[in-house]
Amino acid sequence: MFSYCISDRHRLRLLEAHHAAELFALADANRDHLRNWLPWLDLTRTPADSLAFIQSGLRQFADGRGFIAGIWIDDKLAGIVGHHPIDWSSRTAAIGYCLAESHQGQGFVTASCRAVIDHAFNTLELNKVVIRCAPLNGRSRAIPERLGFVHEGTLREAEQLYGRYIDLAVYGCLRREWDGGTLT
Length: 184
Fold this sequence. Notes:
Elements: E1 3-5, E2 10-14, H1 20-29, H2 31-34, H3 47-62, E3 68-73, E4 76-83, E5 92-99, H4 108-123, E6 128-133, H5 138-146, E7 150-161, E8 164-174
Parallel strand pairs: 5-6
Antiparallel strand pairs: 1-2, 2-3, 3-4, 4-5, 6-8, 7-8
């Protein structure tokens, strides 16, 4: 299975079926915080829902359409990062991420995204990686900005979030522009 060591404390690993209870507990413990930005939380009501998500991610991986990995900090699941399925006809992928509130502001998501983007450009040879996030989600927007992505625009009312529509800021990076995300 996919595994990538970022540091002695921080690793990315493909989520497997036996992680379902841990993934559900993570989502449930961070529900109030993550609900501000992520539309899927109300659909995650039991560990079985987390298992279905993991199984979908494993099918995506098996089909060569990218992966969804757990962000492991000190050997505990702290978040997820991965591709929304790769579009091989245009060699593009969007990536998404979320992290437990208790681990935010420590660089874990930036480092995780850097690893996923390096893999996308250098191993998968994709041409473009996109990150979409709510304009008011400053922490999430800081990640593509920190990694040198270009703000390409804002999609108006592009996502339904619990009965209301929100805009999405779109950031993109082309393979020829990627320098490893060395901006600080």
